[in-house]
Amino acid sequence: MAPSVTIDNDSDFTPIASFPTKASSYNARTLLLAPPSISSHEESLRNVLASHDRAVTDLQMLDRLSAGLVTLPDSTYDLILILTDADGTRTESAQLLGRDVFGRMVQALKAGGKLEAQDGSFGQNATEHRESILAGLVLESGGMVKPDYSASEAVPLRLRRKDKSVVSNAGPAVATATVSLNGKRKSVDMVTSKPAGVGFVDFSDDFGDPMITGEDDDDELIDEDTLLTEEDLNRPVNIPPECAPRVGKRRRACKDCTCGLAEKIAAEDETTRANADAQLQTLKLGADDLAEVDFTVQGKVGSCGNCSLGDAFRCDGCPYIGMPAFKPGEEVRLLNNDVQL
Amino acid sequence: MAVDVQGQRHNRKALILYGSETGNSQDVAEELGRMAERLHFITRVSEMDLVEINALLDYTVVLFAVSTTGQGEFPQNAKKFWKSLLRKRLPPDCLSHVAFTTFGLGDSSYPQFNFAARKLHKRLEQLGAKEVYPRGEADEQHDQGIDGTFLSWSADIRKHLLSLYPLPDGVTPIPQEVLLPPKLILALQEKVPGPPQVSTGSQIHQANQIHHPAVSPQPAINDSSGQSPGVQSKPETPEPSKQAANQIKMERTPSRSIYDFPIPVEEEPVICNQLREKFDGEPHDDPDSTFPPSKAIVLSNSFNVLMLENKRMTPENHWQDVRQLTFGLSDEEAYDPGDVINIMPKNFPEDVQTLIDLMDWNKVADIPVTFVASPPDFYLADNLLSKAPGLFPTPNSTLRDLLIHNLDITAIPKRYFFELIAHNTDDPMHKERLLEFTNPALSDEFYDYTSRPRRGILEVLQDFPSVKLPWQQATQFFPVIRPRKFSISSGGTLKTSSTPGMIKFQLLVAIVKYKTVLKKVRQGLCSRYLAAMPKNTPLKVTLTDGSLGFEATKAYKPLILIGPGTGVAPCRALIWERASEALFDTKIATEETILFYGGRNKRADYFYAHEWKFHHLALTHVFTAFSRDQKEKIYVQDIIRREKKEVWRMIAKGGIIVVCGSSGKMPKAVREAILWVMLEEGGVEKFPKGREDVEAELKKMEKRKHYVQETW
Question: Are the Cβ atoms of A206 and B89 closer than 8 angstroms?
Answer without folding.
Answer: yes
